[in-house]
Write a structure and sequence with these properties.
Chain A has 7 helices and 10 strands. With about 240 residues, chain A is an alpha/beta fold. In chain B, about 50% of the residues lie in helices and about 15% in strands. Chain B is built from 14 helices and 13 strands. In chain B, strand 8 and strand 9 form a beta hairpin. The chains are: A alpha/beta (about 240), B alpha+beta (about 375).
């Protein structure tokens, strides 16, 4: 069960305590996140909503070990990541986190297969094992027949499915999705949300997603609102974050 | 090895740019190969000179002769195994443009001292029997299409008149860098026919029993002829060849200067190319870091890319240079020992890789230091 009041018993997958993040822009100090607490169990699908500049992406970056907090702690599957060295954090990220971006961020000179294979290049898997993993994963996202296509030969929805395949191919502990439907038409957006839902319900994945789209948020089991750096539980309503 | 596909895909990303950068390396390394070859040719065989040979010349000048009688005194010096001598002839074959060196040598001792000249036994025997006989090197024979048995007329410039020679044989070098662009004929023929300078030779070559004795023997020889009308200057053959080459100017410095400018330009061109390539791929590097590529991985990817470009260009350029030099002296005689040694090919390849690594270093470090969050925000 997701909690934002800091009363979780600490047995969950993700445990965030008193998280603060401040930026300095010139002489101005911006307090993006203020004393944030969060507990997420395995297999949960959490959506973060909130106005632009509310700190959603910053929170995602901190949870993914891409950025460091000003204070507070983040513990994932027993690993306290806020005090890890950059090198350890990189290795941890490779093992535990799958990222899905709004703009897909595929490598244009690699085929769908090559893009999905990228995280596996960092493992000890043989070439044959990598191939089997990639084909199985592309099968999950329904793009096995497009594995030799380059990103420019795919539609936006297909590109995002390749990006999702890349995020799950190494069996990440949890997925972080930053506006995964933000650049897609409605039909493609629905397909992507359907796919993310399946990953949670059929494959037991844990997903934390930032979105402005209430329809996308509806697919998540829990919707949390971020406003002025503070996290509150809430329900989906039209217009939130729009 | 796991990242080979990724590196290759990146090289193929902008085919024209990659091709042009590889091309600039190829041109630079081709030029390097030619410069090294020309430097070697101008050094007059300094690099191939025997370590166990001394050259004895007239102390006043190389063009001043030494008495033939010195030969026996040199032979008596301690540490001397053999003595031979030669005289510059300076003849012209048909036209002044057909320059090649000709030496009157002692038929009995020359090939014993210069063991790097390989002559078939029967051809050497012919020379022994034939007072007007001569031997030419393989490249010289090829240059003029001469065959054993041909009659070669030369117009004398020092000893005027027409001199006729019988081509008794063609010598080879026992190493590829031995000069095979010379003509050697019998000293006794010159001595018999010339009208002045009789009883003199151009210079002596002394073969040492032990190369370690070079300094002692040199001092003994020069000391022995001190205060005589023909004082001598004795030096190792290598030093002699180097000083001879210096008469043509400091070719080594010239080659070094041109080479340095070329490589520095190459460094800037490739560095700029790699910097552009890295800047264009900022978001991609951020994604790679996001999925778990470490800083050394990113550094390695960019460096390997730069070094691969340099290596491919280097191989191409040096291969062309080697092929070009295999065709022989393109100047028809000015650069007789026109040969690109494999050691220089290796040096060129090493330099290419070093320039590639240096050019890729800054872009690689900037890619490595990329902050993922900042880079993703820019997408």
């Amino acid at each position: 069960m997701v909690r934002v009041d800091g009363t979780g018993n600490g047995t969950g997958l993700i445990r965030v305590r008193d998280l603060d993040k401040k930026y300095r822009r010139g002489s101005e100090e911006i307090h993006v996140l203020q004393g944030l607490n969060l507990d997420v169990e395995r297999g949960e699908f959490v959506a973060f909503m909130g106005p632009s500049g509310s700190g959603k992406t910053t929170l995602l970056n901190l949870l993914g070990g891409l950025d460091l907090p000003t204070s507070g702690s983040i513990t994932v599957a027993g690993d306290e990541i806020t005090h890890m060295s950059a090198a350890k954090l990189t290795a941890w990220r490779a093992r535990h986190v799958g990222f899905i971006f709004q703009m897909y961020n595929l490598i244009p000179v690699l085929t769908a297969f090559g893009n999905v294979e990228l995280p596996l290049l960092l493992t000890r898997l043989s070439k044959g094992e990598r191939r089997r993993h990639v084909e199985a994963t592309l099968g999950v996202v329904g793009l096995l027949d497009r594995m030799d296509h380059y990103p420019r030969q795919l539609s936006g929805g297909q590109e995002q499915r390749v990006a999702i395949a890349r995020a799950i191919v190494a069996d990440a502990t949890f997925l972080l999705a930053d506006e995964p439907t933000g650049d897609l038409d409605r039909k493609s957006a629905d397909e992507i949300m359907e796919l993310l839902g399946r990953l949670v319900h059929e494959h037991g994945k844990t997903i934390l997603m930032v979105t402005h789209d209430p329809r996308a948020a509806e697919r998540a089991g829990v919707v949390l609102h971020l406003d002025k750096g503070v996290l509150v539980e809430g329900s989906v309503s039209a217009g939130v974050g729009a | 090895m796991r990242f080979v596909g990724l590196v290759w895909a990146n090289l193929a990303r902008k085919k024209l740019r990659t091709t042009l950068t590889i091309g600039s390396f190829a041109v630079a390394l081709f030029l390097f190969g030619l410069l090294v070859t020309i430097r070697g040719a101008f050094s007059g065989g300094a690099d191939v000179a025997g370590v166990d040979r001394l050259t004895v010349i007239n102390k006043t000048s190389l063009i001043m002769p030494l008495p033939y009688s010195y030969r026996d005194r040199l032979l008596q010096a301690s540490g001397v195994a053999a003595v031979t001598f030669a005289t510059w002839f300076g003849g012209v074959y048909q036209d002044e443009r057909n320059f090649f060196p000709q030496f009157a040598v002692d038929r009995d001792t020359w090939f014993k001292v210069y063991s790097e000249y390989v002559v078939p036994k029967e051809q050497l025997a012919n020379l022994m029997r034939d007072r007007q006989g001569c031997l030419v090197g393989r490249s010289l024979a090829k240059r003029f299409g001469w065959k054993v048995g041909d009659r070669i007329p030369l117009r004398g410039t020092i000893w005027t008149g027409t001199w006729e020679f019988n081509l008794d044989g063609v010598y080879e070098g026992n190493r590829p860098d031995v000069d095979t662009g010379q003509m050697l004929f019998r000293y006794d023929y010159l001595e018999e026919q010339r009208r002045f300078g009789k009883g003199t030779v151009g210079w002596y070559v002394v073969k040492l029993t032990n190369p370690d004795d070079a300094v002692r023997v040199s001092e003994a020889i020069d000391g022995g002829f001190a205060n005589s009308p023909y004082e001598t200057l004795t030096q190792t053959e290598k030093a002699f060849a180097a000083s001879f080459a210096k008469q043509m100017g400091n070719i080594g410095l010239l080659v070094l200067t041109i080479g340095a400018v070329v490589f520095f330009t190459l460094l800037l061109v490739t560095g700029n190319t790699m910097a552009i390539a890295v800047r264009e791929r900022t978001a991609e590097f951020a994604v790679l870091k996001t999925v778990g590529f470490s800083n050394p991985d990113i550094l390695g990817l960019v460096l390997v890319e730069a070094v691969l470009i340099a290596g491919l260009g280097g191989v191409l350029g040096l291969a062309f240079a080697k092929l070009f030099t295999l065709g022989g002296d393109p100047t028809r005689g000015m650069l007789a020992s026109f040969y690109l040694p494999w050691s220089s090919v290796g040096l060129g390849f090493g330099l290419a890789l070093a320039v590639g690594a240096a050019a890729g270093a800054l872009p690689a470090v900037s890619a490595m230091r990329l902050e993922v969050v900042d880079a993703l925000r820019r997408v």
